[in-house]
User: Which sequence fits this backbone?
């Protein structure tokens, strides 16, 4: 009796664990746009790009801190076990000393201490103001890098989403084909028993049936991998259940073509503009380094000296001091260092300006290629869809003829093979059209809008 209770309790525990595991698994049912929205929040590359934006913000604050007051407290205690000595004329202490005679004299005492408060304020430094502008421009560049990463993520998620949809529909059709071929195989075996079909007829269909079973198994694995890839691009956990709500027949392949395309729609063009601004700011920074820098300084503190350590901390022996002033630094000659840097900046600016023409030509070519690929892919998809329908019609006719005894089994198996090949070609063309649609939208700079 005790053994039966123990087994029952064990089964209850296992069932409870399975229920909890199912509840812990996140169930996700998303459209393409919802997958994109999820990825924009959870994709690891985007999270790292957001950290880069935060780093750029801290660099602005770091540059700004140079213009704020700099305050320090310095203190120290010393035991001068060997005092520094100087050679002085002996006549200072003894008028009767011989000419040229010197004596050693030690300055200071065995113990000394000091504590001081110092403060400085930048009054003028051209590099500071230019550096502040450069830091803000760098923050702008980091924001654009973040946008570029967003576009890449949207592209990857869109392609992965469409890949899952195509594989799902491909698997559904393969299951239908397998069921159809299984029915044909059973019918042919029945005809063989009745003497209306030969063994070779059964073998032909059996070979196709076995191959199709392997194809179904491979497609299931491919579908699982494509689901995992989509979850990876989204930043979702691999143990989550992902259900897609969009349908392939609902996809709109219409992409509005723009006659007057603005290159500023492309984030790469905007990034190049920001890089040019950074080069010009660096040139400006090198130029303002010819100007002087001016600081205001303030110091106040106490110091003491004594020959006995027990008197070191007596307040009466600590003497105060203080100073207020200005410090000016004027550059005179640096071996043409700044001039060389300015010349380098001018060359860099010309290089980037030349890159604008290269980028514009590249974008024009990319749009043209994407449009051609889109039109070609859609035409091919339409043709392959029509071919698949015709292949199905040919198969149905061949099967009817065979069942009525006016056609051959070989004709049926060949028609079936052509039908499956037409289906494969159609889904390949369908996915190619979906990818071309995504790439054309990216070429127009509308993928993340």
Assistant:
């Amino acid at each position: 009796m005790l053994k039966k209770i123990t087994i029952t309790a064990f089964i209850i525990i296992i069932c409870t664990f399975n229920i909890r595991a199912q509840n812990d698994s996140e169930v996700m049912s998303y459209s393409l746009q919802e997958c994109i929205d999820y990825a924009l929040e959870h994709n690891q590359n985007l999270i790292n790009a957001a950290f880069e934006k935060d780093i750029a913000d801290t660099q602005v604050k770091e540059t700004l801190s140079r213009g704020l007051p700099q305050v320090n407290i310095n203190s120290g205690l010393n035991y001068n076990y060997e005092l520094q000595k100087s050679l002085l004329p002996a006549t200072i202490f003894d008028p009767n000393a011989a000419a040229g005679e010197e004596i050693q004299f030690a300055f200071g005492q065995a113990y000394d201490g000091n504590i001081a408060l110092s403060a400085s304020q930048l009054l003028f430094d051209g590099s500071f103001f230019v550096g502040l502008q450069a830091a803000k421009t760098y923050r702008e560049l980091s924001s654009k890098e973040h946008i570029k990463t967003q576009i890449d993520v949207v592209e990857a998620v869109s392609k992965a989403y469409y890949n899952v949809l195509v594989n799902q529909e491909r698997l559904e059709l393969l299951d239908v084909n397998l069921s159809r071929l299984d029915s044909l195989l059973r019918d042919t075996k029945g005809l063989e028993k009745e003497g209306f079909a030969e063994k070779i007829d059964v073998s032909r269909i059996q070979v196709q049936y076995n191959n199709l079973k392997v194809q179904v198994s491979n497609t299931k694995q491919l579908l699982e991998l494509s689901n995992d890839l989509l979850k990876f691009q989204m930043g979702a956990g691999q143990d989550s259940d992902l259900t897609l709500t969009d349908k392939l027949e609902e996809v709109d392949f219409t992409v509005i073509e723009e006659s007057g395309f603005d290159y500023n729609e492309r984030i790469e063009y905007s990034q190049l503009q920001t890089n040019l601004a950074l080069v010009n700011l660096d040139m400006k920074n090198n130029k303002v380094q010819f100007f002087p820098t001016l600081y205001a300084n303030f110091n106040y503190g106490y110091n003491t000296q004594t020959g006995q350590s027990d008197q070191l901390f007596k307040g009466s022996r600590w003497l105060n001091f203080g100073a207020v002033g200005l410090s000016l630094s004027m550059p005179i000659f640096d071996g043409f260092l700044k001039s060389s840097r300015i010349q380098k900046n001018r060359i860099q600016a010309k290089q980037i300006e030349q890159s604008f023409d290269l980028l514009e030509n590249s974008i024009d070519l990319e749009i043209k290629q994407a449009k051609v690929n889109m039109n070609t892919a859609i035409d091919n998809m339409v043709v392959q869809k029509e071919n698949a329908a015709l292949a199905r019609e040919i198969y149905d006719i061949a099967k009817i003829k065979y069942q009525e005894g006016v056609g051959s089994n070989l004709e049926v198996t060949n028609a079936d093979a052509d039908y499956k090949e037409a289906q494969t070609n159609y889904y390949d063309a369908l996915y190619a059209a979906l990818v071309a649609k995504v790439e054309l939208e990216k070429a127009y700079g509308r993928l993340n809008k």
Summary: DSSP finds eight helices and eight strands in the chain. Strands lie at 27-30, 70-79, 85-89, 102-106, 111-124, 241-244, 293-306, 319-329. Residues 24-66+125-291+334-443 form a domain with the Outer membrane efflux proteins (OEP) fold (CATH 1.20.1600.10). Confidence is low (pLDDT under 50) at residues 1-25.
